[in-house]
Write a structure and sequence with these properties.
With about 475 residues, the protein is mainly alpha-helical. The protein has 23 helices and no strands.
C-alpha cells in the first residue's frame, strides 16, 4: 500500500471553512473556498462578519432571492466567543441576568403611575363637576384650586382626590379589579395621612387643605355605600344591611374641622365659597307647627323620654326636635341638595340614638334618605333612597307601630321616575318661595363665634350649620 500523503492542518483559516471542516488556503483578503462559493470571507472584514452574524433571520421566507451576505449569515452562525466584547451597559446577557424584583417593581410603578394619571384626569374633567356645586366659582375651586393645593405637597388631599375619582369610575365599571384595588388603597392612604396630620395639629398652613380633605372624605364615605354589599366579608352576619353611620360620622368630621380651624379658614375665599355653596339654612324652630310635615315622628316622645336618664333628657329632646326642623326645611326647599345639610347639622346625641337603633331615630333617617330621591341622577347618590330606606325598614319588626311613620319614605323610595307629583311628595317645591339667601352658612358661623367669644370649643356644641345643638345666648350658662 502506498504511503499516505502528508497533510498540513490549516490553523489560521477563515470561520466559514472551519465551520464546514474543510481546509482553508488562508489566501487574503478572500480565501479560495469563499471565492468559489461567492460568499463574504471574514478575512475581508471581521466587523462585517460579526454584524452579519448578529442579524436575526426572518421567520417567514423573503419573496426576494437571498443575497450572498444573507446566505452567509444563515449558513455560518458565528460562535459568540469570537465576537468582540461589548460594553456591559448594552450587553443583552446582563439585562436578562438581573434579579426579577426590580423589573416587577418598575412595571408596578408604571401601572400605578398610569392609574394615577387616569384618576386625576377623571377628577379634573368629570368628577369635580359632580360634587353638587351651586356656582361657577365653587366648581372652579374643586376643579382647579383643590388639585393645585394637592400638588403643593398635601399628599392626603391628593389621595382624597384620587379616591373619589376611583369610586366614580368604579361606579361605571363595578367589576374592574384595578379600580377596586385603587379605591381601597387611596381610601386607606387618605385616612392614614389625614389622621396623622390632625394629630400633629391644625395650623394656619394646613387648615384649608384639611377642611377640603374632610369634605372629600365625606363624599368618599357616602359614595362607598354604593359598594357596601360588594365589599362586605362573606361570613359577616351584618353584611345584609349595615347602619349608614359613615354618612353621619364623615359629615360630623367636617363640622369638627371647621369649628377647630375657624380662626384660620374664616378669611379663606376658598373655604367661604365651598361653605356658602350650600342652600342657606332657614329653620322653623317649631317642629310641631301647622306646617310641619314630619311632626308625626315626635309622637310618643314623652314616653320615650320618661325612660331616659335625667341628665340625658334635655339633649335627647332637643336633638329629635332639631332633626325634625331640618327635615321640614329640606322637604320644602326647591334645592334638592338642601337635604345634605341633615347629616352635617344633627347633634351628636342623635347619632348616638341611631347607633342604639332607637326606632324613632331610624324612622327619622329613613325620611332623610327619602328626601335624596330628587338626587337619584347624581352618581354618588344613585339609588341611595331605595337602598337605605328599604334597608332601614328591614330593621323593624313585623307589626311595629312605626310602620305608619314609614309609609311616606317607602312610597318615595320606590317611586318609579324622577318626577314625583306634589300630592305624593307632600308639597310643591317647584312653586315654593325660595328661602332667604341673604345670610349664608358663613354668616351663621360668624354670628355664633361672636356670641361665644370665638371659642372653637363652644362652636362644637351650638347650633350652626355644622352642629345640631340649640344656640346658647350671651347670658346662657356654659
Amino acid at each position: 500500500m502506498p504511503p499516505r500523503r502528508s497533510h498540513k492542518k490549516s490553523r489560521a483559516g477563515c470561520r466559514r471553512c472551519k465551520v464546514r471542516k474543510i481546509k482553508c488556503d488562508e489566501v487574503h483578503p478572500r480565501c479560495g473556498n469563499c471565492t468559489k462559493h461567492g460568499v463574504v470571507c471574514d478575512f475581508e472584514s471581521n466587523e462585517v462578519a460579526d454584524d452579519l452574524a448578529s442579524v436575526s433571520t426572518p421567520a417567514a421566507p423573503s419573496p426576494l432571492p437571498p443575497t450572498p451576505a444573507a446566505s452567509y449569515a444563515r449558513a455560518n452562525p458565528q460562535p459568540p466567543r469570537r465576537s468582540p466584547p461589548r460594553p456591559p451597559s448594552v450587553t443583552p446577557r446582563l439585562v436578562f441576568n438581573q434579579p426579577p424584583t426590580p423589573k416587577v417593581s418598575s412595571v408596578t410603578a408604571q401601572v400605578s403611575r398610569l392609574m394615577e394619571l387616569r384618576l386625576m384626569h377623571q377628577y379634573t374633567n368629570v368628577t369635580s363637576k359632580t360634587l353638587l356645586t351651586s356656582s361657577p366659582v365653587t366648581e372652579d375651586i374643586w376643579q382647579r384650586a383643590v388639585p393645585q393645593m394637592a400638588f403643593e405637597g398635601r399628599t392626603y388631599l391628593a389621595d382624597a382626590i384620587l379616591s373619589v375619582a376611583a369610586l366614580h369610575l368604579r361606579s361605571q365599571a363595578p367589576e374592574d379589579k384595578s379600580l377596586i384595588r385603587a379605591t381601597h388603597a387611596y381610601t386607606a392612604s387618605t385616612l392614614a395621612e389625614y389622621c396623622a396630620s390632625l394629630e400633629k395639629g391644625i395650623t394656619s398652613d394646613n387648615a384649608e387643605s384639611l377642611f377640603l380633605t374632610a369634605s372629600l372624605i365625606a363624599f368618599q364615605s357616602v359614595a362607598s355605600r354604593i359598594f357596601a354589599k360588594d365589599d362586605a366579608e362573606p361570613d359577616d352576619p351584618n353584611a345584609r344591611y349595615a347602619l349608614p353611620l359613615p354618612w353621619f360620622h364623615s359629615f360630623q368630621g367636617v363640622k369638627t374641622v371647621v369649628a377647630t380651624s375657624w380662626q384660620w379658614i374664616r378669611n379663606s375665599n376658598i373655604v367661604k365659597s365651598v361653605i356658602d355653596s350650600q342652600p342657606s339654612l332657614q329653620l322653623d324652630l317649631n317642629p310641631l307647627g301647622p306646617n310641619s310635615f314630619f311632626g308625626h315622628l315626635l309622637e310618643g316622645l314623652d314616653e320615650e323620654i320618661a325612660e331616659e336618664a335625667p341628665d340625658m333628657v334635655p339633649s335627647t329632646t332637643q336633638c329629635y326636635s332639631h332633626a325634625i326642623c331640618v327635615l321640614n326645611w329640606a322637604h320644602k326647599s326647591p334645592h334638592p341638595a338642601a337635604a345634605l345639610a341633615f347629616p352635617a347639622t344633627v347633634a351628636r346625641r342623635f347619632i348616638e340614638l341611631v347607633e342604639m337603633k332607637r326606632p324613632r331615630a331610624l324612622a327619622t333617617i329613613a325620611c332623610f334618605f327619602a328626601l335624596l330621591k330628587r338626587l337619584d341622577g347624581v352618581w354618588w347618590l344613585h339609588d341611595v333612597a331605595r337602598r337605605e330606606v328599604m334597608g332601614l325598614v328591614g330593621l323593624f319588626e313585623s307589626g311595629s307601630k312605626w310602620w305608619r311613620h314609614l309609609e311616606w319614605p317607602v312610597r318615595i323610595a320606590l317611586w318609579d321616575g324622577s318626577n314625583i307629583p306634589p300630592e305624593i311628595w307632600g308639597t310643591d317645591w317647584e312653586t315654593s318661595v325660595p328661602p332667604d339667601t341673604s345670610q349664608g352658612f358663613v354668616d351663621h358661623i360668624e354670628l355664633v363665634a361672636e356670641l361665644m367669644g370665638q371659642s372653637t370649643h363652644d362652636l362644637l356644641n351650638v347650633a350652626t350649620p355644622f352642629t345640631g345643638e340649640p344656640p346658647l345666648t350671651a347670658e346662657s350658662p356654659d
